[in-house]
Every structure is written in C-alpha cells, then in structure tokens.
C-alpha cells in the first residue's frame, strides 16, 4: 500500500464517495471524473519512506521540488544569524510532506495567516500564509518557512517549541504544494544551485562546519 499522509483523507474520500453516488444514479462519465480526482489526491498526499545515511553536518532538503533561488536572506533572518537562504518550489506533482533539515530542538514555531500570492514571487515569503520554525542543533541553528501559494490552501506544521526532532523526520506538509524557504548560518556551505531538484530528507543542500558557532 502506498504510504499516505493522513491530512489527505478528506480529499480522497469525498470524490470517492461522490463517484459511487453518481454511478448509482446512472452517470458513469461523471463518476469516472470523480475517481480520477480521487487518484490525483492519492498521488498528491503520498508519503514515501525516506532514510539518509549522510554525515551529521549535512543539512537535508526540507521539501521535494526545485531550487528556486540561493542567496541572501531578508534582514529579519540576518539579524538572528541566518544570512543565507535556499528557496525550494513545490509543484502539485511533488510529494507534499516536509521533513526536518537537521536534528535539534524547536526554539520557535509560529503560524502567520496571509495572502495567496504565487509562490515564486519574492514577496510571497513575507506576505503569504506561512509557518516559521527555528531549529537549534549541535552544529548550528537553521530555520525554515512553509509558504502557501495561489493553489496551496493550507500549511500544516506538526512542531511546537521545546520539541526535539531528528533530521529527516516528518514535520508537516503544504496542501497541494507551494514553497519552502530554508535559512542557514553564515558558516554553512551551500551545496545546491537554482534549478536543481530536491527530495525531502534525502538531498544534501548544505553542510554545517563542525567548528562553526552553535
């Protein structure tokens, strides 16, 4: 059986049941459309197992998708010692589940309601609905944002302050894709470039120096 994120059950059950009802009323074509929608939702909310044997200094991708940009972080992130940013764009075809980029303790986790701008726009990180998580690990602190877009209707964050997580652990999802921004300390060496594909919990996107600040 295909591993499946529980948040997707309503999106699968509704078209499945609708298809059964309209089939019973003699509308097989409409039923077929409902069942195709059901299968699409099953694909959208798949949750494959991910295991990485990367060394502890490696920062793993928090999301499946394509690297949208690599560069300087906004002033608010620079002010807390995270001057580097990697943005990953998630299409509806990607796995929606997000994973912890490092092992550590959640120092901050907050949700902000907002707009539904296209996720590729620069302002989406600030203005769109998003969740923000700050993780403190043995080799440094990183943060990430789950950002909703024009199609994505909700971000789901499973973490709370004080919680400990393991690198690659499931930490939430964005319903129907969108974007995740990863913020890194200055001593981190970035290993990806724009256009590169990533897999959450598998792709090495950066390395934290063992001698870097915590």
How would you portray this structure in words?
The structure is a single chain. This protein has helices spanning 9-24, 28-44, 75-78, 124-127, and strands spanning 58-60, 65-72, 84-90, 97-99, 104-112, 130-137, 140-147, 154-157, 164-165, 170-175, 178-184, 189-190, 197-198, 204-207. It is an alpha+beta fold and 214 residues long. It folds into 2 domains: 6-44; 58-207, Glucose Permease (Domain IIA) (Distorted Sandwich). The strands form 3 sheets. It has an 8-stranded antiparallel β-sheet. Strand 6 (130-137) and strand 7 (140-147) form a beta hairpin. Helix 1 (9-24) packs antiparallel against helix 2. It starts with 8 loop residues before the first helix and ends in a 7-residue tail after the last strand. The model has no long low-confidence stretch (mean pLDDT 87).
Sequence-ordered SSE layout with sheet pairings:
Blueprint: H1 9-24, H2 28-44, E1 58-60, E2 65-72, H3 75-78, E3 84-90, E4 97-99, E5 104-112, H4 124-127, E6 130-137, E7 140-147, E8 154-157, E9 164-165, E10 170-175, E11 178-184, E12 189-190, E13 197-198, E14 204-207
Antiparallel strand pairs: 1-14, 2-3, 2-13, 3-11, 4-10, 5-6, 5-9, 6-7, 7-11, 8-10, 12-14
Using the CA coordinates, give the radius of gyration: 18 Å
For the record, the CATH class of the largest domain is Mainly Beta
Q: Any low-confidence stretches, pLDDT <50, length ≥5?
A: none
Strand content is 25-35%
Strand order of the largest sheet: 9-5-6-7-11-3-2-13
H/E topology pattern: HHEEHEEEHEEEEEEEEE
Total domains = 2
The level of helicity is 10-25%
Distance between the first and last residues' Cα: 41 Å
According to CATH, the homologous superfamily of the largest domain is Glucose Permease (Domain IIA)
CATH topology of the largest domain: Glucose Permease (Domain IIA)
Supply the CATH architecture of the largest domain. Answer: Distorted Sandwich
Structural class: alpha+beta
- What count of helical segments does DSSP give? 4
Shape: elongated
Largest sheet: 8 strands, antiparallel
The mean pLDDT is 87
**Total beta-strand segments:** 14
